[in-house]
Amino acid sequence: MSTDVNSQKMDDDAARMGAKQQVEAFEDPPVARALFGEVRWAWIWLILRLYVGWEWLHAGWGKLNNPAWTGDKAGTAISGFVNGALEKTAGSHPDVQSWYGAFLQHVVLAYPVAWSYAITAGELLVGIALILGIFTGIAAFFGSFMNMNYLLAGTVSTNPILFVIATWLVLAWKTAGWWGVDRWLLPMLGTPWRPGVVFVHEPSVTSDRGSGGDHVTAGAR
Questions:
Q1: 90, 84 Cβ separation under 8 angstroms
Q2: Which residue segment(s) compose the domain that 193 sits in?
Q3: Same domain, 152 and 55
Q4: What is the pLDDT of residues 54-72, one digit of tens each?
Q5: What is the pTM of this model?
């Protein structure tokens, strides 16, 4: 009898060890699930979203009304910015890395007018999207991408703060725009892995009466 009990215990231990080794996913902690997935905490992201959105909108609006960015002298401001960044590539521990300096010199500085308009439009679009809560996660991603490029160009200012907040907004993309257009837009459009109601076709049922009775046909609208 004791042998059977010991054998059963060994089998149970082996099963538990096997289950531990076959872990396929780890659950998020309760705090992360609440902040990034529950709409009751969406007001936190609203405050951060409005702050970051206003910073981008203010910066973009200033460039839009600056002739050195989008006027007759478009490209002048960004050329001066890039030349200043290139001066920071010297030394053993430069503020601007050589590979990024090469990008600035051969890609950005070669087309200053185009980049000047692109940056202005990008800042305005990100600002408007964050304030209104339209595709908040995507807007925050592109905002953080611009922050990263400004940091790589040797400009600190508020970029580290905006970058961190934008990263949080990306993580909270499901609820960050709840107090905004995303509250209705995301359920309508859905995601690449789960289409929204706009892309889900409901079956339509038609009834054909014949000698054999009703014939039901299911189709897509």
A1: no
A2: 185-221
A3: yes
A4: 999 999 999 999 999 999 9
A5: 0.79
